[in-house]
Amino acid sequence: MKYYYLIASLPNLNPDKPPRNLDFKKWHNFILRNLAESDRHILELLTVPERVKKLVQILHEKRKEPQVYPLVIEVPDLPVEFKKTNDLITLLPPFLSDWLTENDYWLEEKPISDLERQLFSLFYHEISNSDNDFIKSYFRFLQDLKNIIAAINARTYDLPIKNQLIGESDINSSLTRSQTPDFGLGEQYPFIEQLQQYIDKSSLYDLEKYVDRLKWNRLEELTSLDFFENSNVFAYYLQLKISWRWLLLDQQEAEKGQIEHLLSDAMNKWSIKTLNE
User: Fold this and answer.
1) For every one of its 277 residues, what pLDDT tens digit does the chain have, with 9 covering 90 and above?
2) What's the pTM value of the predicted model, to 2 decimals?
3) Contact predicate 143/124, CB 8 Å
4) Domain encompassing residue 197
5) DSSP 19
6) Would 4 be classed as within a structural domain?
7) Which of 131, 164, 182 is the last residue of a domain?
8) What angle do CA 33, 36, 39 make, to 5 degrees?
9) How many domains are contained in the chain?
10) Domain endpoint, select from 131, 157, 174
11) What is the Cα–Cα distance from 4 to 123, expressed in whole angstroms?
12) Residue 250 sits in the same domain as residue 167
């Protein structure tokens, strides 16, 4: 099915400068309304990472642990049952909620990072069985990207690499066994050296920007020869999430800067007042 009207109606996105008036919920709902039923299922799959992160966020709050995801994009169509009961399992699609129902002790007893890795492993396995080649190719790349970053971090902090990896992947044996700086994967993934540099410098902001640029470019590569196909819609939706997240982060930083400025101004006025008394 061709999506002429849908794709022609979507606003342009720039990876370096998200539109200030971008409305994620509006365009999420617009895309959902205009998709064929079979493609809606795939779009719902694309919201699973946010659902898992939302679960992780709530668990950290319950356990009074530091947040690893202070900002999570809110999925506009969270399940009604979750809104009514706040039951974490209802946040997830059946292929994850069924597993978690059978293994609900993970919610209380297991480290949250282990639970998150397990849920994402199941997610990537589900994606690998998709009939959509674009979805399979992109998320295979994303899984490899995440595992490469995890392996670099594990090597940096002298942790067992195998325990940090998500799911099964063709590159996992190289990540766990290779002693070379690029894990023997530099030809396949030439960006590994740059990732290493950002991690060595603890440049989290630059690292996240670079990773999102890698995702964006991969989406462009996978859809460069497609026109008005469902793959174009899915790629756009994934880029929309990237743009929306950075818009929210930039707004947070701006608000933080304004608050710090007001506090600094207040402290200066207080200091001057104290000196004059």
Assistant:
1) 899 999 999 999 998 888 888 999 999 999 999 999 999 999 999 999 999 998 999 899 888 888 887 677 777 766 666 655 567 888 899 999 999 999 999 998 899 999 999 999 999 999 999 999 999 999 999 999 999 999 999 999 999 999 999 999 999 999 999 999 999 999 999 999 999 999 999 888 899 999 999 999 999 999 998 889 999 999 999 999 999 999 988 877 665 544 444 444 444 444 444 444 4
2) 0.87
3) yes
4) 132-269
5) -
6) no
7) 131
8) 100
9) 2
10) 131
11) 30
12) yes
Whole-number Cα distances in Å, 168 to 61, 145, 193, 218 = 30, 13, 23, 21
Give domain status of residue 136, yes or no: yes
What backbone torsions phi and psi does residue 176 show, to the nearest 5 degrees? -90, -20
Cα of first residue to Cα of last residue in the chain, in angstroms, is 76
19 belongs to a structural domain: no
Distance of CA 254 to the CA centre of its chain: 22
In the structure encoding, which two tokens stand for residue 94, read together? 């059946």
Q: Does residue 20 lie within any of the structural domains?
A: no
- Say if residue 45 is in the same domain as residue 65: yes
As a whole number of angstroms, the distance between CA 219 and CA 226 comes to 11
